[in-house]
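Fresh eyes needed here. Kindly weigh in on this sequence plus structure tokens:
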Amino acid sequence: MSRFLNVLRSWLVMVSVIAAGNTLQSFRDHRFLSEKLYTASPGLVNGLQARTFGIWTLLSSVIRCLCAIDIRNRTLYYITLFTFFLALVHFLSEVFVYHTAALTIGVMAPLMVASFSILGMLIGLQYLEVEALSQNKKKN
């Protein structure tokens, strides 16, 4: 396996662990979301919304961790890539469409993580292609 794919796997595990921590914070106290993410409309954040956000974050965390474990699984790889696109679109829409979030560090961090992850996973696709081609040549 290439060094890049190993770094990508480590990145996915790190992002997964951080997301699991955010899940716990969402369940423990919904003020976490109103103080860190949805600062433009903190009154809209309630316990139900925080728990829903927590479940969404937990699901993303599990998917990303599973991809790190089995990075050659194409379907799982694309689903993981899609979770980062969803996160990017979600936070951008909250800032620019719904105006419930401001461009604070609490929003910029997930935007940067999603953007870097998308870039890394798109580059990783090239490495997976090269590996697949070299394995096919070995079989023939």
Q: What stands out?
A: The two ends are 20 Å apart (CA to CA).
